[in-house]
Design brief:
Layout lengths: L4 H8 L4 H17 L11 H7 L11 H11 L11 E4 L5 E3 L27 H11 L8 H21 L5 H17 L4 H24 L3 H18 L2 H17 L3 H17 L4 H17 L3 H15 L16 H14 L3 H14 L5 H17 L3 H17 L5 H14 L8 H12 L1
Antiparallel strand pairs: 1-2
Helix pairs in contact: 2-4, 6-8, 7-8, 8-9, 8-10, 9-10, 10-11, 10-12, 11-12, 12-13, 12-14, 14-15, 14-16, 15-16, 16-17, 16-18, 17-18, 17-19, 18-19
Length: about 450
């Protein structure tokens, strides 16, 4: 029987369990003194033996314990063979939520950017106040700078909802580089440091989402991995929940339904660790449903959709994070419609997507455009060509007049173009195909 990953790594470093436990306890003491963990975890040989056991499932460690383990071994706990159990899969066997292998973040006092590129200058609105300070040995970070950057991150997320991410990933990347510069070179207390690291995580997962919306899937997966690593290293289960939700959504578009299910279930595990509000539970349930729909699992998809609506109908609350605010009734109806479309339930999908389109507001123009594109595809599937033409024209109008900048929206129209091509002799289809080719070319 093969050794567990943790045992293999420990033995490769010539450490006995007793030696490793002693070093882990010493590291935990230092991290607690620095305020990097909320309470000092204690490690024992018996505990180590359980983590290294060949039996499954192995005990999943507390967030503070995870921070110490990951810093000590320089691996995520998933890479060490420790996974939160998420119940049973469709076959009735125990299912373990497993994240893909992720590169670790390497922090250094010299290496400022964690991202590729040469544009390391501060955003223009910060340049005047910080150019001189950035090179000084006593560059003290001000709270109002962090607040401004936080507001900028919120503004970018709001712009994404209305217009899409094509024009947002570049400025977001520049802001993120500057936040890392502040973290590595600036002077700040522990409280402000925690806010800076949280801000870096927020920018990183948003950058992943904007890259995904812009069709830059490889970059998006890299940024999501970076954000998830940061969340794991700091024990930030809120950031883990958000990032894994984003990763689940992207996995569906990449036709990786099983991966989407794993990400959504792992996100639900992290959500439970911070007693997430019901709006978060609704979002993660519909993300899981999309994964089940993509692999054609009707039973589990229906169950997840029902859970999503049950949680959503419990209403909003003061604890709802800003990244769930987009999940209004129109969006949840649309996401269910997408599930129905993937399951081949075209008539039901068309009804839901038409309802969603009527409910969408101006602040969510990109989402409305996506909904219209999927409505057009569902109408083709049910041989309602007139309805498809009407929905497609509305989607084109949004792209041309509402400033939508989303590669996903354009890709959806390419799918519609290919679906309408066999019906080119139907009324209005020929001219519409010409319009579509001008957009998707």
């Amino acid at each position: 029987m093969s050794r567990s990953p943790m045992r293999a790594l420990r033995e490769s470093r010539n450490r006995t369990q007793e030696k490793a436990v002693g070093e882990l306890n010493a590291l935990a003491g230092r991290l607690a003194a620095e305020g990097r963990v909320s309470r000092r975890p204690t490690f024992t040989v018996r505990q180590m033996s359980k983590w290294e056991s060949e039996s499954r499932p192995r005990p999943y460690p507390h967030p503070d314990t995870r921070v110490v383990l990951e810093l000590y071994f320089q691996r995520s706990v998933e890479d060490l063979g420790l996974h939160p159990c998420t119940g049973e899969d469709a076959s009735g066997t125990s299912a373990m939520a497993v994240a893909t292998a992720l590169p670790l973040v390497e922090h250094s006092a010299i290496a400022v950017p964690l991202l590729a590129g040469d544009d390391q200058d501060p955003p223009p609105w910060l340049a005047q106040t910080t150019t001189d300070a950035a090179g000084a040995a006593d560059w003290k970070i001000a709270e109002d700078e962090v607040a401004l950057l936080r507001d900028a991150a919120d503004d970018m997320d709001a712009q994404d909802q209305q217009f899409g991410g094509n024009r947002l990933w570049r400025p977001t990347r520049a802001h993120l580089l500057w936040v890392h510069h502040m973290i590595d070179r600036g002077i700040y207390d522990d409280e402000l440091g925690q806010r800076l690291h949280a801000l870096a995580g927020k920018f990183t997962t948003s950058l992943g989402w904007f890259s995904y919306d812009a069709g830059l899937h490889t970059q998006a997966r890299q940024y999501f991995s970076e954000a998830l690593n940061a969340a794991i290293l700091t024990g930030d289960d809120v950031l883990s929940s958000r990032t894994l939700s984003n990763m689940a959504r992207q996995a569906v578009d990449l036709n990786k339904g099983r991966e989407a299910i794993r990400f959504a279930r792992l996100a639900q595990t992290h959500a439970g660790m911070w007693s997430a509000p019901t709006r978060v539970s609704a979002l993660l349930a519909i993300r899981e449903a999309q994964g089940h729909a993509r692999v054609g699992d009707h039973f589990n998809c229906e169950s997840a959709i029902k859970r999503a609506w049950t949680e959503w109908e419990r209403g909003t609350g003061d604890r709802d994070p800003d990244w769930t605010m987009f999940l209004n009734e129109a969006e949840l109806v649309c996401l269910e419609g997408m599930c129905r479309l993937d399951l081949g339930q075209t008539a039901r999908a068309k009804t839901l997507l038409a309802r969603s389109e009527r409910l969408q507001d101006v602040a969510h123009s990109r989402n409305r455009g996506m909904c219209l594109g999927r409505l057009a595809a569902a109408a083709i599937g049910s041989r309602d060509i007139d309805r498809s033409v009407d929905a497609t024209k509305k989607a084109i109008g949004l792209i041309r007049t509402a400033g939508i900048s989303s590669a996903r929206a354009v890709q959806q129209l390419k799918i519609v173009h290919d679906g309408l091509a066999p019906h080119d002799r139907a009324s209005g289809v020929g001219d519409l195909l010409e319009e579509l080719r001008a957009i998707v070319a």
